[in-house]
Amino acid sequence: MAERIECATCANVVCSSEDSDTGPWNCPTRTKKGAIRAAVGEYAKPEIRAFARQASIQEFECYMHLPEGVTPRNPRVEEIAQFAKKMGYGKLGIAFCGGLRKEAAILDAILKKRGFDVASVCCSVGGVPKETIGIEQDQKIGGPGVWETMCNPIAQAKILNELGTELNIAVGLCVGHDALFFKYADAPTTVLIAKDRVFGHNPVAALYQSESYYKKLMREDR
Ligand code: SF4
User: Fold this and answer.
1) What is the pLDDT along the chain (222 residues), one digit of tens a residue?
2) Using CA atoms in the order 80, 81, 87, 93, what is the torsion angle rounded to 10 degrees?
3) pTM (2 decimals)?
4) Which of 71, 95, 143, 190 could crosslink 156 through cysteines, CB 3.0-4.6 Å?
5) Residue 14, ligand 1, Cβ within 6 A
6) Closest protein CA for atom 7 of ligand 1
7) Taking Cα atoms as reference points, which of 122, 128, 129 lies closest to residue 145?
8) Is 195 left (phi over 0), alpha (psi -120 to 50) or beta?
9) In whole angstroms, what is the distance from residue 52 CA to residue 38 CA?
10) DSSP letter at 190?
11) Distances (CA, A) of 75 to 62, 78, 104, 207
12) Which atom from ligand 1 is nearest to the alpha carbon of 24?
């Protein structure tokens, strides 16, 4: 049988316990010792260790221990600012989709008020026409013959690389364009907004409704 790693459907989640070696037969905690050893080796590198450690501290600080129970306290944008401070970063980059320009401007204002040097680059930077990547006239959103600028995540990344940003923040980049940005960006990138044109950039809403109004998501492709 082909190798199958299926944490998402695991019926015996022990990896978050002290008995992490007692998972299912195909549990990667048991079967992928080499990869796990290699990963732990990466955390031994001082800069990676500091990054991972501060991320973990950030996670810890996101909860309040109230009499009625543990309660989260910070929206993601606050977390991003706090994490960047913890890391001692001064230069932040925002890679945003033109459809979320207002949101990018608000984020820019928030981060500047918190003392960061912020650069922001729009996806249409460069004004390169979609024909450049082989888009046909009938594949244009506005219809045949209309000028359309391609999303240019590689340029977004290269510009932020030139500026020496220390942490980038993705704001509403399209599916695929975001992946290219991550691939080409020198600095680590976190996501503030994952684009979802239907659900107000809250893509998990589709999963929550996949047994009701969005059952179509569960259809089988043949
Ligand atoms: S790592 Fe092992 S125990 Fe944890 S979810 Fe995956 S299969 Fe289950």
Assistant:
1) 578 999 999 999 999 999 999 999 999 999 999 999 999 999 999 999 999 999 999 999 999 999 999 999 999 999 999 999 999 999 999 999 999 999 999 999 999 999 999 999 999 999 999 999 999 999 999 999 999 999 999 999 999 999 999 999 999 999 999 999 999 999 999 999 999 999 999 999 999 999 999 999 999 998
2) 80
3) 0.95
4) 95
5) yes
6) 27
7) 129
8) beta
9) 15
10) E
11) 9, 5, 16, 21
12) 7
End-to-end CA distance of the chain: 22
Helix (H, G, I), strand (E, B) or coil at 16: coil
In the block, which residue shows the tokens 């923040």?
169
- Residue 170, both tokens: 């993705």
CB contact set of 165 (below 8 Å; sequence gap of 6+):
91, 92, 93, 119, 187
Closest approach atom of ligand 1 to CA 8:
5
CA of 40 to the centre of ligand 1 (A): 17
CA of 147 to the centre of ligand 1 (A): 49
Which is the closest atom of ligand 1 to the Cα of 30?
2
The distance from CA 119 to its chain's CA centroid, rounded to whole angstroms, is 18
Note whether 119 and 192 are within 8 A (CB).
no
CB 152 within 8 A of CB 97: no
For residue 189, list its beta bridge partners. Answer: 168
CA angle 191, 195, 201 (to 5 degrees): 100
Nearest C-alpha to atom 3 of ligand 1 is from which residue? 13
Closest of 40, 38, 32 to residue 4, by C-alpha:
32
